[in-house]
Design a protein that fits this description.
This protein is α+β, with helices and mostly antiparallel strands. The protein folds into three domains: 7-115, Acyl-CoA dehydrogenase/oxidase, N-terminal domain (Butyryl-Coa Dehydrogenase, subunit A, domain 1, Orthogonal Bundle); 121-230, Beta Barrel (Butyryl-CoA Dehydrogenase, subunit A, domain 2), CATH 2.40.110.10; 236-382, Butyryl-CoA Dehydrogenase, subunit A, domain 3. It is 47% helix and 15% strand. It contains eleven helices and ten strands. Strands 1, 2, 3, 4, 5, 6, 7 and 8 form an eight-stranded mixed β-sheet that branches. β9 (273-274) and β10 form a beta hairpin. α7 (235-271) runs parallel beside α9 and α9 (317-341) packs antiparallel against α10. The protein is globular and about 80 Å long. The structure holds flavin-adenine dinucleotide (FAD). Flavin-adenine dinucleotide (FAD) binds next to β1, β3 and α11.
C-alpha cells in the first residue's frame, strides 16, 4: 500500500512473508490451543535473521531501522500474533533501551542473548501501578556494593520463558533518599530472588505467557543498573522514550492481525455464494470491504510514519502514540467485520477469525492504554504537562505515560 519501500525492503518483506505464510501459519492455531511458547518459531526467525535486526552490527546485529523491523512484524502477525510479538520484543522495547543506554558490557550481554533466541522481558507494571507507572513500589536499596531489590510486577510478557529481564525500580541511596527510577538487568535462573510467581490465564495471545514476577531481596551489582543519559532523576522519562519503539511494534502486530483478517474476508466473499451469486456482489458487503481497506491503509501509513520518525533514535512520542491508538482500535473493528462476513463459520474455532478477535483485543490495553496514550498526544499538542492526579501534584519523576 505504501510505495516508498525500496528494493531491499521489498525483499525483506517478501522473505518475512514466505516464512509467515509457511511454517508460522501452519502452527499458529496449535500454538494458541496448547498455550506453549513456540520455540520452533523462534528458531525459524533466528535462522532468517529476524531476531535482533535492530541491534548494531558492532554487537552482531544488522543495524536495521524500525521500519525494517515493522515490515517483518507485520508479515508475521498476519498469520500468527505470537510470532509478531516475538519479532517486536527481540527488536524493540527492552533490547532497544539496553542498546541505547546500556554500558558496553550490558549491550554485549543483551545482544548475545537476543541473537541466540532470548526474548527479553520488560518489567514495569505492578498490581497497584498500571497507567500510573510512576506509582511503582518496587525498590532498589543501595547497600554497600550491591542493590537489593524488593517488589512485585505483573502482566510481564514472557515471564517464565524470557531469561533477560529489564526491571524498573525506584532507587534509594544508603540513607534512604529517593534518587530516581532506574532499569536493572537480571537473568532468570541465575539471579537469586527473581521468582516467576504465576501465569495469567489470558483471553488471547495464549502462546506467550503473561506472568507475575517477584523480587525478594534480589541482590544485583551496580553494573546491572542501566544509567540513563540524563542521570537517575530523569531515568524514568529516558527509559520510557525507548518504549516508543515498543508502542510502534505493538501497533504493528495489530496492523498485521487486521490485514490477515481482511485478506481472509476478501477471499471468502468471492468464494461464498448466496442468492445465486458471490456475496461480494452485494453492495452491503462491498462497502464493508471498502471501509476495512481504508482503516488498514490509514493504520499502515501511521505506523510506517511513526517508525520512520525514529530514524536517528527512537520514534517520536506523539506519532508512536497516535499510531498505536488508531491501529489498535481499528484493528478490533476490522477483525470483527471480517468475522461477520464469514457468518456462522466466523464464530467457529476451526477458522482463525475467533483467535484473531481474541488476540487483537489486547492492543488498546498493553503498552499504554488508548486513553492514556490520548493524554500523551494531547500533552504534546498543547505543549503542557497534564498531571492526572486529583491535586495536580507531579511525583518526583516524569509523569507516567
Ligand atoms: C497482554 C498484556 C501484556 C502486557 N505486557 C506487559 C509487559 O511486558 N510489561 C509490563 O510492564 N506491563 C505489561 N502489560 C501491562 C500494561 O502495560 C498495563 O495493563 C497498562 O499499562 C494499563 O494498566 P492497568 O492494566 O493497571 O490498567 P489501569 O491503569 O488500572 O486502567 C484501567 C482503566 O482506566 C483507564 N485510565 C487510567 N488512568 C487514566 C487516565 N489518566 N485517563 C483516562 N483513563 C485512564 C485506563 O485507560 C483503563 O481503561 C501488559 C498488559 C497486557 C494486557
Amino acid at each position: 500500500m505504501i510505495t516508498a519501500l525500496d528494493k531491499d525492503r521489498i525483499r525483506l518483506r517478501d522473505q518475512a512473508r514466505e516464512l509467515a505464510q509457511g511454517p508460522i501459519r501452519a502452527r499458529a492455531a496449535e500454538v494458541d490451543r496448547t498455550e506453549q511458547y513456540p520455540w520452533d518459531h523462534v528458531d525459524a526467525m533466528k535462522d532468517a535473521g529476524f531476531l535482533g535486526m535492530t541491534i548494531p552490527k558492532a554487537y552482531g546485529g544488522q543495524s536495521k531501522d524500525w521500519l525494517d523491523a515493522v515490515l517483518v512484524i507485520e508479515e508475521m502477525a498476519k498469520t500468527c500474533s505470537i510470532a509478531g510479538r516475538i519479532a517486536v520484543e527481540t527488536n524493540m522495547g527492552a533490547v532497544s533501551a539496553i542498546m541505547a543506554y546500556g554500558s558496553e558490557e550490558q549491550r554485549k550481554l543483551a545482544a548475545d542473548m537476543v541473537l541466540s533466541g532470548d526474548k527479553p522481558a520488560i518489567c514495569i507494571t505492578e498490581p497497584d501501578a498500571g497507567s500510573d507507572a510512576s506509582g511503582m513500589t518496587t525498590r532498589a536499596d543501595k547497600r554497600g556494593n550491591r542493590y537489593v531489590l524488593n517488589g512485585k510486577k505483573h502482566w510481564i510478557t514472557g515471564g517464565g520463558v524470557s531469561r533477560l529481564h529489564l526491571i524498573f525500580a525506584k532507587i534509594f541511596d544508603e540513607q534512604g533518599n529517593f534518587e530516581g527510577v532506574g532499569g536493572f538487568l537480571a537473568i532468570r535462573d541465575e539471579t537469586q530472588g527473581l521468582e516467576i510467581v504465576k501465569r495469567e490465564p489470558t483471553m488471547g495471545l495464549r502462546g506467550i505467557p503473561e506472568a507475575e514476577v517477584a523480587f525478594n531481596d534480589m541482590e544485583l551489582p551496580p553494573s546491572a543498573l542501566i544509567m540513563p543519559p540524563r542521570g537517575l532523576k530523569k531515568g524514568f522519562a529516558d527509559l520510557m522514550t525507548a518504549y516508543n519503539s515498543q508502542r510502534v511494534g505493538a501497533g504493528t502486530v495489530a496492523l498485521g492481525i487486521m490485514e490477515g483478517a481482511y485478506e481472509l474476508a476478501l477471499d471468502w466473499t468471492e468464494e461464498r455464494e448466496q442468492f445465486g451469486r458471490p456475496i461480494n456482489e452485494f453492495q452491503g458487503v462491498q462497502w464493508r470491504l471498502a471501509d476495512m481497506s481504508i482503516r488498514i491503509a490509514a493504520a499502515q501509513a501511521l505506523i510506517y510514519k511513526a517508525a520512520e520518525s525514529g530514524k536517528d533514535g527512537f520514534p517520536d512520542k506523539i506519532m508512536a502514540a497516535q499510531a498505536k491508538i488508531y491501529t489498535s482500535e481499528n484493528a478490533i473493528q476490522v477483525v470483527n467485520e471480517a468475522l461477520q462476513l464469514f457468518g456462522a463459520r466466523g464464530y467457529s474455532r476451526n477458522l482463525p477469525l475467533e483467535r484473531m478477535a481474541r488476540d487483537v483485543r489486547m492492543f488498546t490495553i498493553g503498552g499504554g492504554t488508548a486513553e492514556v496514550l490520548r493524554n500523551v498526544v494531547a500533552s504534546g499538542l498543547l505543549g503542557k504537562k497534564l498531571p492526572q492526579t486529583r491535586d495536580g501534584y507531579m511525583p518526583k519523576m516524569e509523569a507516567a505515560e
